[in-house]
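We emphasize that the prediction below concerns an isolated chain of 207 residues; any contacts that depend on oligomerization or on bound cofactors are therefore not represented. The input was used exactly as deposited, without trimming of termini.
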Amino acid sequence: MSWDSLNRDELRRPTIRKASSLTSNSSKSYEPPPLGEIQRMLWKPVPCHANVNEVWPNLYIGDLYVARDIEHLRRMGITHIVNAAAGRFHIDTGAKFYKDLPVDYYGVEADDDPNFNLSVYFHPAAKYIRAALNSPRGKVLVHCAMGISRSATLVLAFLMICEDKTLVDALNTVRQHRGVCPNSGFLSQLRDLDIRLTSERGSSFNL
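Result of the prediction step, given as a token string:
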């Protein structure tokens, strides 16, 4: 991994809304739903099929076509790129590919396989995205091949870890702007994260 350093109508500016009391992570009554219930949430069609979508202020999920379009990235003002499908046999870009673009690059060599343990990257990637968004004029693209599973999973984990959202809230937030669908293994890993974070929040309530 390295820490070095779209047509406008494709972009959807997110409107951030407060979560309902039933799903808000500020509610002491929240319980992470079963995996099957989370999967059913993904059955609802989402009319967002662009190459890239803004799913949180200055945070974008995209596919390989956007990731390889230097001029498009330049026009978007992207400052940081997280490649969730890095590596020789995936989307092999890397810092050298972006040498003519003033961006910082972070690569995760993940397979879109339910058996792949993406959870080991949840906290490092979330920390990177948080720092990138806090940087001057920070705009972050998180991508994989299709912008549906690997990249979406890392963005969901970021929202849960750094924005204090439950998995339900994070999914609802992102799917307002892009039709993401993490594979079953990644959903299970996100649910495990949800359980841990919910437990930590519950402990803080009892202090």
